[in-house]
What does this fold into?
Amino acid sequence: MGWFKRLKKGVQTSSNLKKDTPDGLWFKCKGCGHTTTNKDISEHFYVCPKCGFHERIGPGEYFKIIFDGKYIRLFANLKSKDFLNFTDLKSYGDRLKAADKKKPGREAIEVAVGKVKQKPLVIAAMDFAYIGGSMGSVVGEKISRAVDYCIENRLPLLIISKSGGARMMESAFSLMQMAKTSIQLAQLSNAGLPFFSLMTNPTTGGVTASFAMLGDINFAEPKALIGFAGPRVIKETIKKDLPEGFQTSEFLLDHGFLDFITHRKDLKDTINDLIVLFNTKSDFKLTEDK
Amino acid sequence: MVFLEFEKPLEKLHEQLEKLIQINEEGELDMSDKIKELENKINKKSKEIFSNLSGWERVQLSRHPQRPYTEFYIEHITTKFVELHGDRYFNDDKAIIGGLGKIGTQSVVIVGQQKGTNTKMRQYRNFGMANPDGYRKALRLMKLAEKFKLPVITLIDTPGAYPGIEAEERGQAEAIARNLFEMANLRTPILAYVIGEGASGGALGIGIGDKVFMLENTWYSVISPENCSTILWRTWDYKETAAEALKLTPEHMLEFGLIEDIVKEPLGGAHKDPEKMAKTLKAHIVKQLKEINEIDTDTLLKNRIERYKNIGEFEEVTE
It folds into this structure.
């Protein structure tokens, strides 16, 4: 129950969101097998210094990379529930319990407000480690509330997508989160506030086909898998091998669906540039009573 | 006539009935009493079967090869219809059709997925699975409707958006997302009807509505029962179980508050009497149009946002 207490105080530092990267001294790159120390990789934004492979990281790390230190976690009191009594090999209720055990007090998305080089920004970052970052009612509601928060305080929004798609165990409700998030982003757009959509590995299914593709700026980390249908499904449908580099960030950039690709080390500078260029003015103060 | 697995008890009765009718027509024996008796029996048995369908049986009915599709409804509902083609970017998708039509005195734009009625046409229509071009065509027509203040009626019937290489190259995800975003802001009424299969983002891509309705033997879900079974059970064999778990029937959807109403089908399904089905649907649309035309556009959009913003089931943990 530790995090409830912290929530009361309001201000959170990056250390409050438990690290999503493996503990231990050594780190082995999933791309090239290069071994380095954990300290070294964390100082390199969890990008392999040898091959540039972007290791999967969680919301806590993104907040640490992008924000100027201090940030306030928002809507952390929303929790998924098994309202359909959905059971496959395991019940959804048990899956939620297991996910909570692995990541106490967390959800498939975390929202926070903080500052980027003194300019306020709301970030909603998905967490692949929580049921594959799948979008259920909580993801939809947190994005919906993040949009309202941005409109109320005149803030830009960054969503960092990392998801296998909609959460099947919430059936039509998870499908409708596609509609809900898109409709809310239309309101953000109507309010003249910028929405930056960063796609990371992987961004697929209902997440891509709703908020992830709706950015005023759509950008991605290098070599991320981004698509509507999963590669396996496409392969089974067309019964042919898929072309090299299909559905990667580079493929999407080439086909006109991304504005650019950003190396993680440049992420903060890029976002800062965007905020400056979009000229978003806000008198928002990062205080504990917000 | 095609009988589905659970309709087998009816198949025998229908065979008997046909024989009786034949004997009767030959004129040697008067079978009219027996025919009447058998017809009553069939009716009773049908009611028994169709009043108690499982989720999977609904899915099967929604895919019945003789079920009426979008084109049929357009022909029977409108007095005048001009089909419009193309997305103005790349292609004319054959899996989504649409155009301008007249229902009573009201001009409308109708858009819907179209499946083929025979093997050749099924391929031509890509089994009702649209490419991005289809969603972009649908959006173009909806924008046209907005410009001329015409209500939009969408007819949903798809096993999903097409998962192919070209679909990804041309931005299947972007096309669907764009439709959701634009339909949110569309300054004209939208009525959405699920007339067959309502599978996932491919259905939702033309499915944002001020009001959403389902025909009685249809389904709406985040994923088809087969694909759900494949992913969660790692085999195709649990599709019946998946269909139950997904709670995808119109009754469930109404109970969840995700749709506004269920449109009754003729006994045994829409394909048993397509003309009657079209009549019922037309009456439903006419009534809905009348009601929705009363609402001013600002209120309409405000209600549309609220309708979707309120969808979701979760807990709010307090300290």
In short: Residues 1-15 of chain A have pLDDT under 50 and may be disordered. The longest helix of chain A spans residues 171-190. The first strand of chain A starts at residue 11 and ends at 12.
